[in-house]
Amino acid sequence: xxxxxxxxxxxxxxxxxxxxxxxxxxxxxxxxxxxxxxxxxxxxxxxxxxxxxxxxxxxxxxxxxxxxxxxxxxxxxxxxxxxxxxxxxxxxxxxxxxxxxxxxxxxxxxxxxxxxxxxxxxxxxxxxxxxxxxxxxxxxxxxxxxxxxxxxxxxxxxxxxxxxxxxxxxxxxxxxxxxxxxxxxxxxxxxxxxxxxxxxxxxxxxxxxxxxxxxxxxxxxxxxxxxxxxxxxxxxxxxxxxxxxxxxxxxxxxxxxxxxxxxxxxxxxxx
Length: 271
Description:
Heat Shock Protein 90, seven-stranded mixed sheet, three-stranded antiparallel sheet
């Protein structure tokens, strides 16, 4: 009924940062069209707290507001990401039979709601609402890049809601999304530096075996998080819960100053 495998494996992530990188937008210089924006809010359905049932989708994105081609490209990609996340809870057949669900939040919600109705018909005593909430905001804007974060929350039954954060970087000249590895000049050195910062954050000495301490490694090796991003003061490394540690650990995040990353990252491509 639901394609929740991805979120079951990687989800249950904390939606709130103790130090949210977008709580104060960082702007290196005035960038026409990308600094100025507006909130794009959409809400469909509702959760009935009395009956503990219902289905809802809520979207709240800060979007650049000018009519330039770069802005249009970034906005289109952000819209696509939101719709894909809502559709991830519907089976492929439902989406295929409603092609407009790939193009609008409203249509994606309608498929989501139909899936909920089918689920309740099969399991009428199952408690709880089905909810998806997606929030987005800028992290930092420079003349070269546009950095953005998306917070995702969902609940479709089970012991816990699912929540996670993703960080994105877009080319300030074309609007195309870029991979963070584009900005890394020495992956091996960066990995070593990040592991040292990780151990310091988790209060683990260098002689401690991470797997024996309960952390999840990739082929018994430490790895960079799926999400890391530039900020004014350094690079924020962000491990969602269940990415490298059990749910109880929550988010693991830390920032490494640029002064400690000389030769490892191409800062000149950002500022």
